[in-house]
Design brief:
Blueprint (H helix, E strand, L loop, with lengths): L10 E4 L5 H8 L7 E4 L5 H14 L4 H4 L6
């Protein structure tokens, strides 16, 4: 789906996260390719795992990392 030049919304969470029920509801509204899960709760190991998956699936354009400046 077109995003109007904006980054698509991605969702990542640990399956045992206390916020997982709400995240699952949101995830049902997103394309499956934009939802990343991992075993565990709401802590850094899980965040690192889902973040790596997100970066591999949808790399951030360089300009997004440079404050919107071409680069």
């Amino acid at each position: 789906a077109a995003t109007g030049g904006r980054m698509p919304m991605l969702l990542g969470y640990g399956l045992a996260d206390r916020f997982a029920p709400a995240a699952r509801l949101l995830g049902e509204e997103l394309p499956a390719a934009r939802v990343f899960t991992t075993p565990g709760g709401h802590d850094w190991p899980q965040w690192r795992t889902v973040w790596r998956g997100m970066l591999a699936a949808a790399p951030v354009p360089r300009r997004a990392c440079a404050g919107g400046q071409p680069g």
